[in-house]
Design a protein that fits this description.
The protein has about 325 residues and is of the alpha/beta class. It contains 12 helices and 9 strands. Helices cover about 45% and strands about 15% of the residues. It is globular.
Length: about 325
């Protein structure tokens, strides 16, 4: 089974070699590596072409392509168009695969008799000061519906955390090139609403290198205030318009989107932007209250817990998403 790894690259000459070497070190073959340059100006293209010249082989095909659009979604879509693999793995140009990542994906697919559309894994974050944080992703059940709460709150389908069947991906609208932030979150919502057959590996097989100011998030959420909220609104609309979804599940997922909005407000407050935090809190709190019909259960139980969770997040407390999945 051929697996295609798709990597967009924009001005990553200093680090993309590390990423490519981690793909080369994969224990699985055959692999196809498609690196799509975003019109880089720092010599990244030369690094990519040199890697292709040195390592292109019958069982390790390396394709170097171009896409001038600087939103990451466009080169990922371009890579998917060029891919020949039955399965696709989207990856970032500054992170690493552990050597058995692709092999483990394929094992899971084979274990399910090929009857899967998406396989998810876990990752760990490496910081410049040497700290390592393993993200807490609990093993969900219940297929795509079981995975959705973990994606809404924890970004389970972040770019690096899954492999997807090419035919299934082609049946969606692909990456939304107009979304400048959290585009993997928005895509993940759409993918799960499409009802994929999913499996989850409780193994940490990806290394994320915190890139600080050069990442899409940057060093402060408030520096891109408004963009994050827009993506949350898009995700909310996807859920509201989804056909065939029972109303209890729809209400639950919409409440989790509003809790993610509260989490963003907590980020703003930690960054000293109380003005942004207050406005966002009011919007999320109002939506949650309306969802519960201003019932006694909301006023006496859910509302106090919601306020407590916000304060907990704003003070840096972790694990609030686990509580949110239970109380909403």
């Amino acid at each position: 089974m051929l697996v295609s790894v798709i990597i967009p690259v924009y001005n990553r000459a200093a680090v993309v070699g590390r990423t490519l070497e981690s793909v080369l070190a994969q224990t699985y073959r055959p692999l196809e590596v498609i690196v799509v340059d975003n019109d880089s100006s720092d010599g990244s293209r030369e690094v990519l072409e040199r890697f292709a010249a040195e390592h292109d082989a019958p069982d390790f095909r390396v394709v170097v392509a171009s896409c001038p659009h600087h939103m990451a979604g466009a080169p990922r879509n371009r890579g998917a168009e060029l891919a020949h693999g039955e399965w696709l793995v989207f990856f970032d140009s500054d992170d690493e695969m552990k050597p058995r990542l692709i092999e483990e994906y394929v094992k899971v697919v084979n274990r399910h008799g090929g009857e899967l559309d998406l396989v998810s894994t876990r990752d760990e974050v490496h910081y410049a000061d040497g700290r390592v944080r393993r993200l807490s992703m609990a093993t969900p059940g219940g297929g795509a519906e079981g995975l959705m709460p973990y994606h809404i709150l924890n970004g389970q389908l972040a770019t690096l955390r899954y492999a997807i069947r090419r035919d299934f991906f082609a049946g969606t609208d692909g990456w939304n090139i107009s979304v400048p932030v959290w585009n993997d979150w928005e895509l993940g919502v759409r993918l799960l609403l499409a009802g994929p057959r999913v499996a989850y590996m409780k193994k940490t097989l990806v290394v994320v290198h915190d890139s600080g100011a050069t990442s899409i998030t940057g060093t402060a959420f408030s520096s891109r205030a408004g963009l994050w909220e827009h993506v949350l609104d898009i995700g909310r609309l996807h859920i509201m318009l989804a056909a065939g979804l029972d109303e209890a599940t729809r209400r639950y997922w919409l409440r989790l989107v509003e809790f993610k909005r509260l989490a963003l407000a907590a980020d703003y407050e930690r960054e000293g932007r109380d003005d942004l935090a207050r406005a966002l809190c009011r919007k999320a709190y109002s939506a949650l209250r309306q969802s519960y019909g201003d019932s006694l259960g909301w006023r006496w139980v859910k509302a106090p817990l919601t306020r407590w969770l916000f304060r907990r997040m704003a003070s840096g407390g972790r694990g609030s998403s686990h509580i949110a999945r239970l109380i909403y």
